Amino acid sequence: MFRKILPLAFLALAVTGAQAQSPAPAYPSKPIRLIVPFPPGGGTDILSRLVANKLTEVSKWNVVPDNRAGAGGTIGIVEAVRAAPTGYDMVMGQKDNLVVAPWLYKKLSYDPTKDLVAVAHVAYTPVVIVTGVQSRFKTLADVVTAAKAAPDTITYGSPGNGTTIHLAGEIFNSAANIKLRHVPYKGSNPAMMDVLAGNVDLMVSSLPSAISQIKSGKLRPLAVTSARRSTSMPDIPTVAELGFKDFDVSTWYGLFMPAGTPKEIVTTVNAEVNKLLATADMKAAVHAQGAEVQNMSPEQFSTLLKTDYQKWKGIVQASGATIE
Fold first, then answer.
1. Which CDD domains does the entry link to (predicted)?
2. What percent of the chain lies above the pLDDT cut of 90?
3. Residues 80-139: pLDDT tens digits?
4. What is the CATH code of the structural domain delimited by 32-124+250-319?
5. In the chain, which ranges are E strands?
6. What is the residue extent of each domain of the chain?
7. Phi-psi region of 36 (alpha: psi -120 to 50; beta: other; left: phi over 0)
8. Banded pLDDT at 7 (limits 50, 70, 90)
9. HEC readout, 191-205
10. b/e string for 219-241 if b means 16 or more Cβ within 10 A?
């Protein structure tokens, strides 16, 4: 009996051992969802779809954009935070919903430095102040003069409360000692439609959201809010050049996954994205949208997030802005 049972026992152990040592499926083995926290047509959506399409084309991954807009981009971040940390859900985050919003919203349910892992930095872009071509404002000085003559009557649209772009307008109010009235929208595209129609006087926008309308001559750019001029549109002066020394508000975009995502998956995605960003085609495509690619390791990107997170705490508190 023992002579019959023992070989069967050894066979069972061998099968179990072989199963335990069988390799895990190669990553990715199924589609990856890329959560886009703003509506179609804005700067975040444009860059997200560019990354998704290029990864699908070049790396042969199946990356599927999923727009989850609202509340200044925070709804999409919450969706990512709640996702399983398997590597099959990531989000295109930016300063708006990761660095500014946590200090503006009183009841935000996430801490970006703890609930997400930084995967790959994608792009940096200036913020631009624009008006419609039919507008009476030809320069930023015209806006300041009119705002001082009639406080709280000149309106500016933004992609929503709690965005870097919203705060750029508030910081400009403080720097120029004026009062522009903020009109929040649910993304850049609806704000753009209203400034083109003349329903709001100005729009503060990421350059990728506005660049096509600027190039077509439908929007008049007044200034960029970054420390240096945009390489995509070098003729637009900076706010600092126009008399507001040290004015510097810009934004960045990058990929994040839920905290707890395996490090090897984070490393794999970072390597593929950085390889993509190094190609001439991708650099040109991002540059055409008014942004600039910026390669970083996950550790470098995490440091940027944490540094900006603390920096903007002081900026938001100094502005006095809060959102329920």
1. PBP2_Bug27
2. 66
3. 999 999 999 999 999 888 998 888 887 888 999 999 999 999 999 888 999 999 999 999
4. 3.40.190.150
5. 32-36, 63-67, 89-94, 116-132, 155-158, 181-184, 202-206, 219-224, 250-258, 292-293
6. 32-124+250-319, 126-224
7. beta
8. low
9. HHHHHHHCCCCEEEE
10. bbbbbbbbeebbebbeebebbbe
For residue 53, which of 253, 265, 251, 286 has the smallest C-alpha distance? 286
Q: What gap in Å lies between CA 315 and CA 104, rounded to an integer?
A: 10
Task: Check: CB of residue 85 under 8 Å from CB of residue 91.
Answer: no
- The first and second tokens of residue 135, run together, are 């507008």
CA dihedral in degrees (296, 302, 307, 312; nearest 10)? 100
Cα(139)–Cα(242) distance, integer angstroms: 10
Alpha-carbon gap, residue 60 to 185, rounded angstroms: 36
Tens of pLDDT along 185-196?
Answer: 888 889 999 999
Q: Rounded CA gap, 38 and 114, in Å?
A: 22
Please, which residues have CB within 8 angstroms of residue 90's CB and are 6 or more apart in sequence? 32, 33, 34, 35, 80, 119, 255, 256, 257, 269
* Cross-strand bridge partners of residue 319: none
